[in-house]
Amino acid sequence: MSSESFEVFYDGDCPLCVREINMLRKLDRKGRIVFTDIASPGFDARVTGLTHEELMASIRGRMADGTLVEGVEVFRQLYSAVGLKPLIPLTRLPGVRQGLEAGYKVFARNRLRLTGRCTEESCALPEAV
Questions:
Q1: Widest CA span of the chain, in angstroms?
Q2: Where are the alpha helices (DSSP H) in 1-129?
Q3: Which residues pair with residue 9 across a beta bridge?
Q4: Where are the domains of the chain?
Q5: Residue 6 forms beta bridges with which residues?
Q6: Cβ–Cβ < 8 Å for 88, 80
Q7: Is 6-114 a domain of CATH 1.10.3470?
Q8: Would you state the pLDDT for residue 128?
Q9: 50 alpha carbon, distance to own chain's centre
Q10: N or C: which end of the chain has fewer CB within 10 A?
Q11: Residues 6 or more apart from 2 whose CB is under 8 A from it?
């Protein structure tokens, strides 16, 4: 990875995620983003220091220096890499930042359900006590 690159770990089996990734691929004219599909049969989560379950729970990315980021910060890094850096400060405004973080957490928690990929294990509700 170059000093200006950013690696995103995305779920290639998620139709919504793939739509976003395809848009970013088109915008990434300078090749600053490394796209890594965690659903690919050859992917080994150990390269991130995280488990596959952790990667599935929330979008993750890796900065050029190896630092891992997650959630909305991943999108900030991605949009910055494709030339939308002037918009990033808006995502950090009070209220906007909290709204984006809360919205992403709701999406991430319900992503499998929203994309029709629930199984008994992946979308099981906790047993009542």
A1: 54
A2: 15-27, 52-57, 72-81, 96-114
A3: 36, 60
A4: 6-114
A5: 33, 63
A6: yes
A7: no
A8: 55
A9: 14
A10: C
A11: 32, 64
